[in-house]
Amino acid sequence: MEPISAALVGREEERARLEAFVKSATGQALVLRGEAGVGKSALLDHAAALAAQEGRVVLRAAGVEAESALPYAGLHQFLHPLLAATARPEGDASRAEFDAAFGGAPGRPPSAMALGIAVLRLLTRSHARRPPLLVLDDGQWMDDASADVCGFVGRRLAGGPVKLLVAVRTDTASRWDTAALPELPVRPLSEEDAARLLDRRHPELDRRLRRLVLAQAQGNPLALLELPVQPTGRPGGLPDEDSAGPHGVPLSRRLQRMFDTRIASLDERVRAELLAGALDGAGTPGRADAVPGTRYVMRDADAAVAAGLLDIAPATGELVFRHPLVRSAVVQTATADQRRTAHLALARLHRGDLERRAAHLAAATAGPDEAVAGILEAAAASATRRGGALTAVTWLSRAAELSESPDDRSRRLAEAAFVAGHAARPGHAHRLARSGLAPGAAQPPGAVLAAAYQALYQDGDVRSTRAQVSAAIEGLRDAGGPAATRTETEEVLHRLVVLLLAISQYSGDRAVWESTRSLLASTGGPATDRARLYGDTWSDVNRHGAGRAEQLRRAAARLPEMEPWDAARLGVAAYHLDLLDTCRPHLQRVVDHEVETGAVAAGMVMLHLIMLDQTAVGEWDGAERTGQRVLDLAVGHGHHLFAAQSRAYLAHLAALRGRTDRARDLCAQVDAWARPRGLGFLTQLTESAAATAALGAGDHEAAYHHLAAITRPGAFRPYAYQAPRTLLDLVEAARHSGRAEQARAHALAARDAGLPDVSPRQALITYGALAMTARDEPEAAAMFARAQAHPDAARFPFELARIRLAHGIRLCHAQGRDEARHQLNRAEAEFERLGAAGWTERTRAALRATGAPLRASTARAASLTWQERRIADLAASGLTNKEIGRRMHLSPRTVSSHLYRAFPKLGITTRAALRDALTRGEALSRA
């Protein structure tokens, strides 16, 4: 039997790496990267043969340029044989996820993470005894959605038996460039190995021609095999020796020209067969989804085999393209009419597959055709639901080109612009919306919508955008015309109304909101119930939100049916009603899917909502990771408004954790950007975060002044969204700064305004504020009992711990120490679990006042790294950061960073508390 390595010449380093890769007992991924023709496919074949010899199942797929716009087409290649052969276990949800992704069932596809987990589960279950090796050739052509899922799988193979091997070209950008997987560069053969390969395959060459081939091939194996057999008038089809070398026409193009010549020598029927196969992705090595009628299968092309353009796959007997350059050459040598004819035939073949049929019809149609435009529009809607927002924009734009009437063209361009805006392509959206307009012509409503999206989210412009959007709404609200036109007008009007609500929310200004609500009321029928829900919750939930919770719960039951932007908007309403638990599971399922391949802007809103809920329920580490992720996304996409919003939320989280310097730095960044733009929503967030930081540090006077900038005590400033949310903060700051009457007035104002009826969190903090400011003990006990007994109290652990702390201190003075300790112990345990360092320290001080022994802290000095402990010791001895830096050869900034990380581990917020914390940690360690 011939050794597996006999087919390869040289490649000792690559073969050793692949052998170690295949024989390793643990799962892993590897990406082969090199130029066209350099031998990546041969190395994949080598690895596949090794894996089969080791008893592995080999699953192969190949990226196809013709399918690169079809979401999940590449993943379907890998999984089709498994899905067809594997029975679906009772209660297994994975198959439903695959059906949604591949279009076999209605519903939104799962996120890349959920689908990746399902893929891992399927691979493990299907091949429990024979672990699989997944082999992907031409990975640069795999569609983005599939590449994201495969990349997710590849990063999580450690600890299991599954392996993934991918080959990609260096000259084509792809998702694999940022997949963070180990790579093996595939370089040209050495001069010696190139000569050995040439002599093995073409021993008949004379010395001059041999030298010319070696010079032209530059170590590229495909060139070494093909250049000597190019059928031209010159020996070997090569240029003069003087022109040999690396300069001039790129090698890949010279190779393609060789294939052009061979294609031209075939008769018309065979060329047509090759063209149909190339345009439909047929003839791909390892293609496993060969279901009759689902793709083109090349037949009767023996002449192409003889010409070295096709091979016969040993496993299936199918005709396969010898190299991707052959497929490209086949398409490029065909005339435009030949390509259109082939696409039309392929569209008939795929009449049962909406998206494939649409893709071929788009390429086959030369002039306006309303039927084809309608199919493309339907395919775009399907692609949007499956996470292919950018594909949807392409198809809607093509549908607009094929529209027979100006109205249909404008409508489809507006839809393309709308989707592009939500896919974080606002500039593209604006260009689409203005397509075809005469110079100086007034902007249509779709163009106003696109321009306002760009101005709001990229520049934070709430002033001019409000004027433009309001004018567009006024121009549309009384539009008449045919029923179909009225329906389209109402859709555009609804989108403008929702955008105006978002602009008004970010402005945080009473006059703006009153104007918006008046305009919304005047739109009558076209303003949907959903828009009114948004208006009532986004504007002033204190005044308009009561009674909206049930409507929101009913709407949330239909979340899987909604477009991503509608799901995100409903989530914002849920946040203002403190009901994010009704939406968060759905948002977590779809958010990765949207930020990777779909509606990126909606995905960033979803991440903000997830972060807010994580903060509310006490998942602060997760909230910080989510906040940093959305900040990175916002900066990367140029959404400066979302970037500032992310920083504001991170500032609030830092303030909760006692990281005062970080909170203040972030607040300063946000305030400097937001205040000149009139973004009251963000400036209120910075005031709230600054107040939280001051409260944690015990600076109640500073906290009071920050909170008074949001609303005066005893009232809730209209349309100040942070006014009701900071109720507990203002009550506490007023009480501890000598303003007891103001604190009481504010608590009573919350009760009289009906805040407990608005949301569960508002109920909790209202009862807590009333307990804190009660005139007598029976009232205090009754209000505290109502707060603690609220069915949703546990969902807001930080607020509940604060109320317990305040009540415990009151009990200590009114009823004795024993009654107080229970509440203080519960508060201290919760604050420490959350990582609220300042609040933990305050609660411990209250416990010490009761004479209670402190329980062993989970934040021991032993958790510090060696360097953190050394720096903490030096700081506790009284040295400054500069002095510590000189002693440890570190910069003062590095010293500060280490202390910043050490403080929460020790449960403190100031340098003055360092010595006690370190001493306590040593005592606990000895105990």
**Structural class determined from secondary elements:** mainly alpha
Measure the end-to-end span. Answer: 70 Å
Q: Kindly state the number of beta strands.
A: 7
The rounded Rg comes to: 33 Å
Q: Widest sheet: strand order?
A: 2-3-4-1-5
How many helices?
46
Portion in helices: 55-70%
The CATH class of the domain at 4-185 turns out to be: Alpha Beta
What does this structure look like?
Residues 227-250 are annotated as: Disordered. Keywords: ATP-binding, Nucleotide-binding. It comes from Streptomyces racemochromogenes. There is one protein chain. Residues 1-5, 231-249, 285-293, 481-485 and 923-927 have low confidence and may be disordered. With 927 residues, the protein is mostly helical. The strands form two sheets. Strands 2-3-4-1-5 form a five-stranded parallel sheet, with helices on both faces. Strands 6-7 form a two-stranded antiparallel sheet. Among the domains are: 4-185, Rossmann fold, CATH 3.40.50; 191-248, no CATH class; 861-926, Arc Repressor Mutant, subunit A. The termini are far apart. It has 46 helices and seven strands.
